[in-house]
Amino acid sequence: MQNPFLPSPRKEYTEMTQEEQANYGAKQIMEFVASCPGKTILSGVSGYFLGGFFGMFISSMQYDQPFGTNMTKLADLPFKQQMKVQFKDMGRQMSSSAKNFGYIGMIYSAVECALQSFRAKDDLYNGASAGCITGAGLAIKSGPTAAFTGCAGFAAFSLAVDAYMRSENGAPPANDYND
């Protein structure tokens, strides 16, 4: 049975009502977001922004030693110079964290989606395997020991997060007020 809110396949886009056009557009967006390229792009973009925020937060906590510099006495500089150095440092650290988080999000999401499509299953093994492949891939330039450690660390973290999210819909524990 045809959904009354979606246009019939034979109807031209220009012949649709405004409501049908809106529903058709929403359907197209949801189909893209549910696809592997859509998930990969969405993970990369959200990882980029999360990484930027994380970098800003970490940079604000490191007021004594700017990122990547050999300056030891930041407090000896005039206030205007201190602010200039700190904001420049914050921008560098935000950019670095944003790129790293976005890259990790894209790799992990693409590998997990590919595994899910290949295996035709949605289970804990996809996330753990994607975590292992992502962790090993990020650390491969540092040698086999680092790749193995990266694989184990990312796989364990992915497995823990997936297991929590799948357990009773991640419900919070019961407390004394639920009686």
TrEMBL record:
InterPro entries per the UniProt record, alphabetical: TIM22
Biological process per Gene Ontology, one example term: protein insertion into mitochondrial inner membrane
Keyword list, A-Z: Membrane, Mitochondrion, Mitochondrion inner membrane, Protein transport, Translocation, Transmembrane, Transmembrane helix, Transport
Single annotated GO MF: mitochondrion targeting sequence binding
A Pfam family annotated for this UniProt entry: Tim17
Its biological purpose: Essential core component of the TIM22 complex, a complex that mediates the import and insertion of multi-pass transmembrane proteins into the mitochondrial inner membrane. In the TIM22 complex, it constitutes the voltage-activated and signal-gated channel. Forms a twin-pore translocase that uses the membrane potential as external driving force in 2 voltage-dependent steps.
Protein name: Mitochondrial import inner membrane translocase subunit TIM22
Gene name in the database record: TIM22
